[in-house]
Write a structure and sequence with these properties.
By secondary structure, the protein is an alpha+beta fold. The chain folds into 6 domains: 61 residues, Orthogonal Bundle (Helix Hairpins); 224 residues, 2-Layer Sandwich (D-amino Acid Aminotransferase, Chain A, domain 1), CATH 3.30.470.30; 89 residues, Nucleic acid-binding proteins (OB fold (Dihydrolipoamide Acetyltransferase, E2P), Beta Barrel); 76 residues, DNA polymerase, domain 1 (Orthogonal Bundle), CATH 1.10.150.20; 74 residues, DNA polymerase, domain 1 (Orthogonal Bundle), CATH 1.10.150.20; 69 residues, 3-Layer(aba) Sandwich (Rossmann fold). Helix content is 37%, strand content 19%. It has 24 helices and 21 strands. Strands 12, 13, 14, 15, 16 and 17 form a 6-stranded antiparallel β-sheet that branches. Strands 2-11-10-3-9 form a 5-stranded mixed β-sheet.
Length: 678
Amino acid sequence: MVDSKNPVTAPDDAHAARHRVLCHELEQHLHNYHVLDAPTISDADYDLLFRELLALEAAHPELISPHSPSQRVGAAPREGFSKVKRAVRMYSLDNAYSEAELRAFDERVRGGLSHDEPPVYVAEPKLDGASIEVVYEGGKLTLASTRGDGETGEDVTANIRTIRSLPLTIAHAGRLTLRGEVVIRREDLAQVNELRAARGEELWANPRNAASGSLRLIDPKLTAERPLRVIFYDTVEPLAEAHTDTLLGLRKLGLPTHGREQRCVGIDEVLAFIRAFESARFDLPYDTDGVVIKLDLLRERRQLGTTTRFPRWATAYKFAAERKETKVLSISADLGRTGTLTPVAELTPVKLSGTTVSRASLHNVDYIAAKDVRVGDTVAVEKAGEIIPQVINVNVALRPPDTEPWSPPTHCPACDTPLRRSEGEAALRCPNAACPGRLKAAVFYFTRRSGMDVDGLGRVLIEQLVEARIIASLADVFALADHRDKLLELERVGEKSVDNLLASVERARTGRSFDRLLTGLGVPLVGGVAARQIAERYGNLATLLAREPGEVELDLSAIAGIGPKIASSVAAYVADPIQRAALERLLTLGVRAESKRLEKVDGPLTGKSFCVTGTLSEPRENIHAAILARGGEVHTAVKKGTTYLVAGDKVGKAKLDAALKKGAEVIDENRLRELLLE
């Protein structure tokens, strides 16, 4: 941690060499984890390497470059996006929707080639994401832009750098311009929507919208919180004379591709690939909406050329989204654990994409008003991203004459508390923290497989337990054994099912990791990834509760990937008297959720603690990160045991008095730099 204008010391060759090694190792681990899905290092060990990098760059800021893994967290927000004019236009693809249209495409291709042999095509997934162009110069990522109108896009380089599956440097000496898609995996969409729901924002209907919206966020730090991935499918500067060899070359450079291309001789082999892929595509972790067919050889592409809009050597076969019409029997509202009400259409059951659909989300009151969905309407239903049933439109011609527009509820259906709708939000919320409906939803979430994994607690039984006041908080799940007789009195609950339930509760009491507990608690903004990072920091609930809320916020803010909003949310959660009482009761009831704690860094500041105050030469979170990376501890206030008060400009008299009273040595920023370098 050095003022870059007046460094304490210049980095020597050893520091520079170590910096290069750390950057290379961290990038390789990111590639193994995000691209290959084959991590070779634990999250804890990765974090140790990352902290070492932060400490090295704090001591020698001259080593920091845009290509360091430390810069993936996102730069400062911008006023907007600058325009990028492309040297080579990014064309759209013509579409085909039937075998006949594909055969017509094949006839045009064969007519434009100078040989009689069947054309050699490459068939590959048509990725359903946000189109992107990424440029490497001399092996370094220098520019990324959105598709825009094909000729001009928007500069999103700062946002693209936050994508962990994308290498910031590659072993390629010249210029390499890549074309690809930014995607979000379907399993990750739920995490994004959980964050949006907690913020009162409209949920993303599908991964494509989530990817596109995340890519164009003005603040790259927000983009860094999204689980974005990039998949490349072509280059502007040729790597080889065959497209299949180009894709292989990209993979050898460590660049992510889909890896699902197939070389096809003639249109019949293309059609066979499409028929096989139409069902196999659902096994992919990301969305596809068709198959791209393109000539394999670049010389043949050049021979055919382009129209004003499309290349003549490629087309996209689009799968039709399955859509069925059915009737709206009623419109209800599901109450979530955060108090958000989600309108739901109850439907006449209809078979859709292999499953029977009887309910479809209507998202929020604005969505219903825009679609004008009414009870009795005939509606078209589709699965967003092939997963979530949603109402697409209303067949007004079939509307019964006596229907009326739906009126949103004014009071909570569970507790009758007046609902609230904050300015700028689409969501209706029940503000009553003691609402039994919110509790039922919270208990259901708490006991799912991603959380404490308690078998036998379904929605019906949870409703009975809450209504009978056997469960009044999440902690009461672990006191069910005290109410065995009452459980047996419940309707449709037998002795064997009670015994099985209580046995499952006992397994969960000591057999779940701390990150599972954190996930199940449903702390606002904390998804599975953040829960694992928090669990590695503290190891268990008792250690977390032993820290003051302000210290928790500081601890978490220093963790790469934990943004200030998440850190603040966790601190507020443990500070809330109701939540804290429930957490402490979990400990009283013997819940011992443990995770392997990230080993404390052993460094020159081990055994020393710091409170940092006043105006300093760089952001305080950078200073905290440097202290933690060297083995020190950070306190939010001067207390008994605080070793140093680091005093910047305009420090308050109260802090200085507290240091004098509690025996903390007052030092300035220069002295701290010396301690960091010892």
